């Protein structure tokens, strides 16, 4: 049974077309995966199918949902279907949830306002949702008290509460380790088995393989290749699809080991705690100029905490960190995992970067030289953070950091929002910066293949001693 059919969907910014005609269909029980690099038009396609494009963009084409035929140029016609027939699982689950409402109230409200049951029935349905999604005990928590995995599951419950048979999941697993990624994929497939339709937008090759179904590959707003997911992944026809698959870290050549220069940081007998639980203990190592240390381990094991201890942002429970005495504090920098929270929301990106460059004695030409190396268009500098993709913002965060010319970079999941091709480009730039500028790098990643092919040596942290669903409240406790 075909749940959704779209014909000749296009998106334009004024007179400039940024998504060329795309046609697709979504059948009950068979997932559809839209795969492509950052900026390929994946999310624009989803927004056009939902009627939620930003006001400055316009869409054309036809969308049939059930027995309703809709004009993509008239987004107001889609509103009556939101929640009831079609729902979206957004990229940032924490940002999609109301920070002032407890988790169960948010899902219960979606049941009550969209489907119309009484308050008692809505609460009962919410309780059933939470049991099915393994969220027992999470109902009374606020969003900031939920782990990333729990927030994702609450967002799934809220998206499905209105009874929508079609779910669009936009980059549902970015920033998650392999176990969490597979868990979210299994949850989405379980929802599919209940008779719905699932459209997954991703740049994650492993997620695409696990979801299966059919695949559409997008590049620069155009369809490059289509077919069964397993077939395309095993034997891609188009050169771009082959390049995309080849850019997976599993296919990278190993980086040649680097003999480090002068010591930048030394750690002796380090231990750290969170919420009274010991995360790691007895860590000793030094980092030299030009060397890259990879840090791996499951969520909640203390990878980010280790970096914060190295930077002096969190006190060590035991041991000490000794930076090279001749280096200023600004020589030690952190590349944050979440660039959305790391940029001022109401300032143009170019102004923020210019301020950093001026503060550290760098000219505007330094920004211009770094933009193409990161695959970034100069036009992005005129935009605010909300007007660029997550992958573009993550690369802009790296650009901002490189303006400081640091001697130590703690890179906390720096490629979690990037497609394989852009990820390879960014890691190459980090390696080049490390070697040419004598910068020590501590690289945190959920991807062991990426780390093994990039780092000079690898530190593997063990499982968290408590529930691996680490929450912002746990992190706040560690910072006290």
What can be said about this structure in brief?
By secondary structure, the chain is of the alpha/beta class.
Helix-strand category: alpha/beta
Shape annotation: globular
Computed CA radius of gyration, to the nearest angstrom: 23 Å
Kindly state the number of beta strands: 18
Q: What is the terminal-to-terminal distance?
A: 55 Å
For the biggest sheet, the summary is: 6 strands, mixed
Helix percent reads 25-40%
Mean pLDDT across every amino acid position: 86
Strand content: 25-35%
The helix count comes to 16
Query: Segments where pLDDT lies below 50 for 5+ residues?
Result: 464-480
Biggest sheet strand line-up = 6-7-8-3-9-10
What does this structure look like?
InterPro entries: AAA+_ATPase, ABC_Ni/Peptide_Import, ABC_transporter-like_ATP-bd, ABC_transporter-like_CS, P-loop_NTPase, Sigma_54_int_dom_ATP-bd_1. Belongs to the ABC transporter superfamily. This is ABC transporter ATP-binding protein. Its main location: membrane. It is a peripheral membrane protein. By secondary structure, the protein is an alpha/beta fold. It is 34% helix and 26% strand. It has 16 helices and 18 strands. The chain has helices spanning 42-50, 93-96, 103-115, 119-132, 148-160, 178-192, 205-211, 229-234, 239-246, 303-310, 349-359, 364-373, 390-402, 420-436, 448-452, 472-479; strands at residues 2-13, 16-27, 32-36, 57-65, 68-71, 86-89, 166-170, 197-202, 214-219, 222-228, 263-274, 277-288, 292-296, 318-323, 332-335, 408-412, 440-444, 457-460. It has a 6-stranded mixed β-sheet with strand order 6-7-8-3-9-10, with helices on both faces. A 5-stranded parallel β-sheet has the order 15-16-17-13-18, with helices on both faces. α6 links the parallel β7 and β8. It starts with a strand and ends with a helix.
